[in-house]
Amino acid sequence: MTENEVFDYHAKYSGKIGLQIKTSVKDRDELSLAYTPGVGKVCSEIAKNPDTVYKYTSKKNTVAIVSDGTAVLGLGNLGPEAALPVMEGKALLFKKFADIDAWPICVPSNLTAKQIAEVILNISPGFGGINLEDVAAPKCFEVEKYLENLNIPYFHDDQKGTAIVVLAGLMNSLKLAGKDFKDIKVVINGAGAAGLAIAHILEKAGVQNLILCDKNGILNQKNLMFEEQKRFLYLNKQNIKGDLKKALENSDVFIGVSAPDLLQSENIRKMNEKSIVFTLANPIPEIMPEKAYEGGAFIVATGRSDYPNQVNNVLGFPGIFRGAFDGRIKKINDEICLKAAYALAEVLTEEELSPLKILPEVFDKRVVPAVAEAVMKVVI
Alpha-carbon distance 88 to 65, whole Å? Predict the structure, then answer.
């Protein structure tokens, strides 16, 4: 893939999504059914029975992908216009993998968390779900606080989506390594939206020893960047102080959602036997897989598609929204996230599972149905 190919691909189609009409409008009779006067009867029915909007309109299968462009991929604050190609790509993935119609809603970067939440609340009557995307921390945490009364499913993919796929991959990795959540020491580098969500779901899965790091080193009471980080300090059981390299000593799992080229092979050598390294900074990870293996890593995962064990959010969000829509779920909670992760991990059979295959491929047709079914079972 060359740079020219990328630009030519996007220019050819002027974007990646568009409107496709579901029904036929070939004559006056069909026009009268689709629009006036026939449509007025449907409007009146929905006004009398609001829940029938899910029966008569596209609401039941439509997601708004909301972004302010403040944390676009690993590129930073690029603004809403520059975020649009990513949001269109996300919409494409919703349609491709779960047959869900999605549309980008890119808002100005200078909006406050409350203002972004107000946009979401105001557009929610026309959508069945909200996917928040590429909003920087701590603003993304603040947005969530204003959405507690939202009556359609809401999902911040950079947080929950990443955490679900990481947990699924780690479940299978620990199975191969013969280790248990309650016994391992985990180090997470990157204490923003993704890092804190991963810490949260690992805590729910049974991890009892976890150290959070960022560019200032191991987090403690004096170097927190925002309040949401404080809750996880108790998981640093030995109250270890210092930098990332100190934290890695005698650890079992490293999860990086931070910056490129932070580690060398010798840092991995100081981890415990059968160490598990999720080096997810993209496109250049915290340590290249070759160097991690050289340091003795048992399993290595990245965010890249050109290495085995890609941790890709597309393994999670299509199936989660498919299950939420089909099960008429109004809130995607911790239980749903855990069940989705377990279902994703179990897609691979014992025969398929290996240190070079801890997650299914993104085009594996078993993924979306398995995750969707697990999500719906929570409601049942």
Answer: 9
